[in-house]
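Q: I'm writing up a methods section and want to include an example of the input and output format. Could you take the sequence below and give the corresponding predicted structure tokens, formatted cleanly so I can copy it straight into the document?
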Amino acid sequence: MGAMFTQSLSLFPEAAAPPLLPPSPSTPSAPSCGPAEGKASASGADNAPWPAAVWRATELGAISIPTVSTGFSALDDELPGRGWPTRNLTEILQRQSSVNEWRLLGPMLKGLVAEGGQVVLIGPPQVPHMPGLQHHGLTEKAVSWISATTASERLWVTEQVIKANVRGAVLAWLPQARPEQLRRLQVHAQSCDAPVFLFRPIDAQHNASPAPLRVLSVLGTGWQVKLHVMKRKGPVHAGWVVLSCVPGGLASVLPPRLQHLQPLAPREAQHVDMVGGLAPQRHRQPVVTF
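A: Here is the clean output for your methods example:
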């Protein structure tokens, strides 16, 4: 076997390396890049426009998709593109459903309906109260309510509405959606010109989500709603955005002093006797036992 292996190698002699050719005198050698040129190229790269998919970690990213103003300037300042994004999912996490949805999205929905848009509700936990929604500028013709009870029905209806590319806004309550199901909705949402909002429980903040924008919503003092942007195209959001969200039906009725409620200062508990008056404080002597 050793002889046969040696003989087979001899049938393919090693090829000789080609001779090295001298450089052509007519071809000038490339000049070396000095320190000044390297510094100039680096500064030129910094001044060059960044692609839409790249942003600095300390700045809000610039997005090329249309956005819709939230109606709150303080919230617009914290969102890329200064508004709710279209062609993407927006995930709103909250402790209890049917509490902050209309107060938070009411100003934006009012503007969309005024332009002839349609608001599609998918699986809301409560029956929409049209007299209350009319205070937000929503009419019966502008609201479509789809009653989907099971989780699979909500997902299927949400996907079909997104693929239909409705003109207006899509609001879906998906408390039991899994990450792979949300990823499928995100793919379809990239072709939808309407903003798509998914309302999910607050515990979902510990799960991964393909939604480019995730907002945590909790109740504040009085009529305030506190928001924390958990995920966005930009730097980490520190703190809370506090919005004054008076319900539409009460904004024209409440006096100014009740539209800006302040928390009550805590009081010290006082002893009350059986008759109802304040009982005098008695200082008891310590009892010494032997």
